[in-house]
Design brief:
The structure holds 2 protein chains of 2 kinds. By secondary structure, chain A is mostly helical. Helix content of chain A is 55%, strand content 0%. In chain A, helix 6 runs antiparallel to helix 7. Chain B is α+β, with helices and mostly antiparallel strands. In chain B, a hairpin with a 2-residue loop joins strand 2 and strand 3. Classes of the chains: A mainly alpha, B alpha+beta.
Amino acid sequence: MLSCLVYLRNSSPLPLIWYVVLHSFLMGVDGHVSQGPWFASVLTLKTSAPLRAEPKKKKKVDPRREQMVRERLKKKLKKLERVPPELIPIEDFTTPAKYMDETRVRGAAQLPFEESERRALLLKEWSRYKQTQHRAEMEAVGLAVEAQREALEELRLESEELYQAALRPDPLLFPFNHQGPSYTPPKAQYEAPEGKYNNITKVYTQ
Amino acid sequence: MAAPCSRMASRPLWQFITNVRRTGLKHTGVRQISLGSACRAATQTRSKTESVASPWKLYGAVCLQRLPVISQERNPIEDQFAELMHQMELERSLLSDHEQRLLEDSERMTRKQADNYDSDEEEADYGGQETITAQDQEDTWEQKLKHFQPALRDRDVGGTPLGSVERCLGDSLVLLVQQTVGKETIWLLPQAQWEAGETLRQTAERGLSSLPEADFKATFLGNTPCGVYRYTFPKEVRTERCVGAKVFFFKAFLSAGSATSQKEPFLWVKKTELQGYLKPAYLEKVDRFILNL
């Protein structure tokens, strides 16, 4: 009996029913499957899940586990994105490296005593000139403000309505544009030459 | 507080006392009563003004200024200081790229003219190219500049007429017109009489636009007058109703594109030249708000 069973096992895989029959036969002979420990475990192996040919059941916990994994990844991504944006560098504040070069230094000329004296005196005279200019400007502005105040006073005595109309701000005044004075007056019928330029300013985005 | 007082006087005393008590206790009552009285007082004064017109005639005038087109000439001290600043900045600066190139080129020239000139070594460094020296570039730039002829700064050495806007391009000019006021024709800032229903600024704008044979495009600086000139009429003209006149001035800047055809009635004068044209009392008031800055 045993030898024929072994032969059967070593041959090609048998249909299921044969094993069931064998198992029941063995069970019927003894009452419990104890033909030897190796034999029994081999048989039980053969009757395990893959050989029952049933589709694998998806456990309900799996989608939830996958979702949890996805959420954890998203949270990690958000933490990484929460880094504050890089500050835009102010290019005027950083001295470019090529100006730190020592070969660019101009030879410092030694000034004679008279020259330095002349410079000091000229600077002092300039400060005095600018001071008188500033005082004159301030006085002129003060006079103009005083004149305006008097005008408003007289207007108020005249009629309250006109006074209120005068106090109202003019919305059309701003933005106020005016071309300031240049060195030479503008040329009549002057055609400026056409040219093109490459704009190489760096634009930073945050 | 004339109105409530008169009302209270007409009532018997006990009513007056209760009124006072009520006003003393309730703040809201006080406020209401005071507002009411103020409104009544205002309407009364307004009706008073309407019934009794102010004895002053109102005029709106415009101080139209043409701002300087070119920069002014420098004083001697300004000249000296500008030179000094230029010199100091040059001394404290580093060599620019162009200057470095000039130095290198001159060094290369001296090396070429030296006896132990190794042309192979030099050409190995520079790749044997015919480079344009910085000096050549400077020369070409100077040539280009000479082709351009800017307009002359001092154009009115020939003596442009006083009525032209183009005179004294370095200073700000004020417009004067000749108008008949009373019996005389005098030079003054263009003005117009105020009519009911318009603001004084509109009067000034009307005064400017009503000038004969001229359309000036001006930007008025706000609704507020910058100065006032009050004068009383001579005794013959003076009546009870009009004692004198008040002229309110408004500032305006002449924007580009003004009329070129100008005849004698106009004058564009600098602040220093105003004395020759305006009356002394008028000039005193006008001088204050015309800034020469």
